[in-house]
Design goal:
Elements lengths: L6 H12 L4 E2 L12 E5 L8 H8 L7 E6 L10 H11 L4 E6 L5 H6 L6 E5 L5 H14 L2 E7 L3 E2 L3 H10 L3 H10 L8 E5 L13 E6 L4 H8 L6 E8 L7 H9 L1 H4 L4 E5 L3 H13 L9 E5 L4 H13 L4 E7 L8 E2 L4 E5 L6
Parallel strand pairs: 2-3, 2-5, 3-4, 5-6, 9-10, 9-12, 10-11, 12-13
Antiparallel strand pairs: 1-15, 6-15, 7-14, 8-13
Helix pairs in contact: 1-11, 2-3, 5-12, 11-12
């Protein structure tokens, strides 16, 4: 640590010393007495059922499950509801509960009123970007021991075959982005920009603004962010997948967003490893020609689930950061991701402010 580092940098360094990396979910004990309560969200991706299916297949029984059900989504998340309920009854027979999820994390407080177990696992696989921040804030307020679980998808859209077809249809970056924006994958091309509650940061009067933004697979999502403010400094992050078979996606992100990013630096950051993501983001904020020293900094969270956990922790440690979310008006649940990959687990270390 630089002896001249400020208090926020020191807090980040201290936090990193307390954090643990993700590890694979191992063999689960069948003894209910030492098992945690599971909090999870009723998502529309197959992977949002991954941990619950694993528990059911190994005949583990939990003392309780709290299922957060989206109630303001127009029914987008209904497709797996029967599976969630069947598996919840199998893993916690007669001991599972449903709470309303308004995408603001307040459902965690409702869960606290329902369970007495101080050992908690929160599965973030089905949480939206906005909902993840609120849910983790809720766990901090709860103050109980918690672990984060996360399940990868077997494949993500666009799949490699769709990407190859798109490249054949257009070699021009602008045309490629336009085609991809109109495809019925992931989400539509209309978005609204929101400041995430509890992470609004602050903008000093008369100060310039800087942006750090994760590249999305639909350029319109990023364009919506840039249309909100006049940024003096911009830095983009392209996610680098964990698995070799998906490494092509990092280059695809650069190509899709090239017309927007061409005049600004783009760096790769692993989509996996939230501790590494915190460290990388801190370097962007404080090292060298630091935007924190010159601007009010906005952080647009459009990365992976674990990158967003890193953004949450960093925002708690650096409260001046303004966290933005580009929210799609329309989702395509059937063409978002497919199948279930590996499940991971790590303890949530509370940031100290």
């Amino acid at each position: 640590m630089d002896p001249n580092a400020g208090i926020e940098e020191r807090l980040i360094d201290e936090y990193l010393q307390r954090c643990s990396d993700e590890r694979l979910v191992g063999r689960c004990s069948r003894e209910r007495s030492d098992q945690p309560t599971l909090l999870l969200t009723e998502g529309f991706e197959d992977r949002s059922l991954g941990l619950l299916r694993r528990l059911a297949s190994t005949r583990v029984e939990l003392p309780a499950i709290v299922l957060a059900r989206y109630v303001d989504d127009g029914g987008v998340n209904n497709r797996l509801r029967a599976d969630f309920e069947r598996l919840a009854e199998q893993v916690a027979p007669g001991r599972w509960h449903v709470v309303d999820n308004h995408n603001d994390g307040k459902w965690v407080a409702a869960a606290e009123r329902l369970v007495s177990n101080e050992n908690i696992i929160i599965d973030i696989s089905g949480l939206s970007n906005r909902g993840l921040f609120g849910a983790l804030d809720g766990l901090l307020a709860w103050g109980w021991k918690a672990h984060i679980a996360y399940t990868e998808a077997r494949e993500y859209w666009p799949r490699r075959s769709e990407w190859a077809d798109l490249r054949r249809r257009s070699r021009d970056p602008a045309g490629l982005a336009d085609i991809l924006d109109t495809m019925p994958w992931l989400f539509g091309h209309q978005h609204r920009i929101e400041r995430i509650a509890g992470h609004e940061g602050y903008d000093a009067a008369g100060a310039g603004r800087a942006l750090i933004a994760f590249l999305p697979f639909k350029c319109a999502r990023l364009a919506a962010v840039l249309g909100e403010e006049d940024y003096s400094d911009i830095r983009f992050i392209s996610g680098k997948p964990r698995l070799k078979k998906n490494l092509w996606r990092a280059d695809a992100l650069r190509q899709i967003n090239f017309t927007i990013t061409k005049d600004w630096p783009v760096v790769e950051m692993p989509t996996f490893g939230y501790r590494q993501a915190i460290q990388s983001l801190a370097q962007h904020l404080f090292a060298g020609n630091s935007p924190m020293a010159r601007y009010d900094v906005h952080l647009a969270v459009m990365g992976s689930k674990l990158q967003n956990v890193a953004c949450w922790a960093l925002s708690r440690l650096v409260p001046s950061l303004t966290v933005l979310c580009s929210v799609p008006v329309q989702y395509f649940p059937e063409a978002f991701s497919g199948g279930v990959g590996q499940s991971w687990l790590f303890p949530l270390s509370p940031p100290r402010m």
